[in-house]
Design a protein that fits this description.
Layout (H helix, E strand, L loop, with lengths): L3 H4 L20 E6 L4 H5 L1 H10 L2 E5 L13 E2 L4 H5 L4 E2 L1 E6 L2 E7 L1 E2 H8 L11 E2 L2 E2 L7 H9 L17 H7 L13 H8 L9 E5 L4 E4 H11 L6 H11 L6 H6 L5 E7 L2 H4 L14 H16 L22 E3 L10 H4 L8 E14 L6 H13 L10 E7 L1 H10 L3 H11 L1 E3 L22 E3 L1 E10 L7 E7 L11 E4 L3
Parallel strand pairs: 1-2, 2-3, 12-13, 15-18
Antiparallel strand pairs: 1-5, 4-9, 5-6, 7-8, 10-11, 12-14, 14-19, 14-20, 15-19, 16-17
């Protein structure tokens, strides 16, 4: 829902609005005022002069007896007329011809009012200028209330009545909507405000959410984004994440049903990172940033509340991990030496995207000694080898996070991302004889038929590399993944963010 259709960008044809008190084809002046405005009170003599000289309809936002002595003042205490006329400041004088707005003046500027009204001596005794006051339509929380009440979009979600003495937060827990943490109540005002973050229609289907394969609208995503604590400007990112989670390649149903640890990890790229204030620096994977914390949570709530993916039901993780509450972070792009994850995956730098990866917990790589790239690459490869199991080959996936101090080693050596991948692939290639079942006295492993063959740890497209984090500390990190590409696993997916 684009709330700007209601209260941003003035509409020219008054007849387009169901304003029963304003005749279609009206020619004359509309004046919107409120008594609680010094300028509106100041210009009462000018209003009286205009009533004697031209057709004038006065609309009062707070008192139908104001201005005194004006007949037939339109009572707009509900603010419907002001909302539909896009009034942001009072007084506002609108000149109309045959139901079409010709010009509007905001505040009091005597020379402009004289010109527009054609009254040369209008209010000679009044000051030349007075700026006016904020319209009641722009008071905190009012735009959303008016957009819901008078806008052209009706919310479809069912209403839940809460008794006066009932604790709404406890009610949401009891009904099973929560991930275990408190939720923000999704009131109509809050959902309307959230929908203002996107131009997409509330009834547009975003995807079919597993495991119940329930159709999910933009409105339903907005409701869960409210509960997660998102701001409206985060909604396009959440919508893109939901779209990505519904793609067959990502296999969200399988990710839910597995007994492994993994859940969706959202990596954000592009200009939207700065636009919504995401944290790509210190503690980028941790707490403290609202966008990072709530976007991933909103996706998980959609899967839970729309798709029915609840722990103990289809969600069969033996252990799970804290990131299943919500795991989202942006790439550090502004000073990165390498192309971003999104660019590497075929998108333009100016595009904003989300990439979904089926990941588990964070495993640190502590290497504070390597000062040349081959040493550091081998160090990182040693940790990557252990993803899932040191003997698991071809079926593993991982997300390697390189922090700025480790990135510096590659930058100073002039290594591109492609050069790093080439060296990393070489370090992650092993003799199958060391990986077969029983080798090194470990029953786990691959079939004996792979003995003597050279095997790669990761299949193509199953090892992602991103740059993020604070500028101090020679650490990197690995987020292990669920089953890699194929009919029994998950492939990383990247989706462009739409407004």
């Amino acid at each position: 829902m684009d709330l700007s259709r209601g209260y941003n960008g003035c509409q020219k044809e008054l007849a387009a609005y169901p304003m029963t008190v304003i005749p279609q084809g009206f020619s004359g002046f509309l004046l919107i005022v409120k008594k609680d405005c010094n300028t509106c009170r100041l210009i009462q003599p000018a209003i009286a002069e205009m009533l004697l000289s031209c057709p004038l309809t006065v609309i009062s936002q707070d008192n139908p007896q104001f201005p005194a002595g004006v007949p037939d003042v339109i009572d707009d205490r509900e603010l419907e007329q002001s909302y539909r006329l896009n009034i942001e400041t009072v007084p506002t004088l609108i000149a109309c011809q045959d139901g079409v707005e010709q010009e509007r003046l905001v505040g009091w500027l005597r020379d402009d009012w004289r010109r527009l009204t054609g009254i040369p001596a209008l209010s000679a005794h009044l000051p030349q200028f007075s700026p006016g006051c904020g319209s009641r339509t722009v008071e905190p929380g009012m735009p959303e209330k008016l957009a819901y009440k008078f806008g052209d979009t009706v919310l479809q979600a069912r209403r839940i009545d809460v008794a006066e003495l009932e604790d709404v937060h406890e009610l949401m827990f009891e009904r099973g909507w929560s991930d275990g943490l408190p939720l923000v109540p999704p009131t109509e005002d809050r959902v309307s405000r959230m929908l203002g973050g996107t131009t997409r229609a509330p009834d547009e289907i975003v995807g079919v959410i597993p495991p119940d394969r329930a159709p999910c609208t933009v409105e339903k995503v907005a409701i869960n984004a409210v509960m997660a604590g998102c701001k409206p400007e985060y909604l396009p990112v959440v919508l893109a994440a939901v779209e990505a989670a519904c793609l067959d390649a990502f296999c969200m149903h399988g990710l839910l049903a597995t007994t492994y640890f993994s859940g969706p990890v959202i990596i954000v790229n592009g200009p939207i990172i700065e636009e919504i204030g995401m944290n790509w620096s210190t503690n980028a994977l941790g707490q403290g940033n609202r966008a990072n914390s709530t976007i991933g949570r909103a996706l998980q709530l959609v899967i839970r509340n729309v798709g029915g993916g609840k722990p103990g039901g289809v969600d069969r993780a033996a252990l799970g991990q804290p990131g299943k509450v919500g795991f989202c972070f942006p790439e550090r792009e502004h000073d990165s030496y390498w192309e971003s994850l999104a660019v590497e995956r075929g998108f333009r730098p100016e595009q904003s995207t989300v990439t979904l990866f089926a990941g588990d917990g964070v495993h640190g790589i502590a290497d504070q000694k390597s000062r040349e790239p081959k040493s550091l690459t081998r160090s990182q490869a040693m940790t990557l080898r252990t993803v899932k199991h040191a003997k698991d080959f071809g079926g593993a996936s991982a997300l390697l996070i390189v922090t700025p101090e480790h990135m510096r080693v590659f930058r100073e050596a002039g290594w591109s991302k492609a050069r790093f991948r080439e060296e990393l692939d070489e370090c992650l290639s092993f003799d199958g004889s060391d990986l077969i079942r029983g080798a090194a006295g470990i029953a786990e492993g691959i079939p004996a038929s792979f003995a003597g063959r050279r095997l790669a740890k990761f299949a193509p497209d199953s090892l992602l590399i991103v740059h993020t984090g604070g500028s101090a500390g020679m650490w990197s990190a690995v987020i292990g993944g669920w089953a890699a590409t194929g009919s029994k696993g998950s492939s990383p997916v990247t989706v462009a963010i739409k407004s």
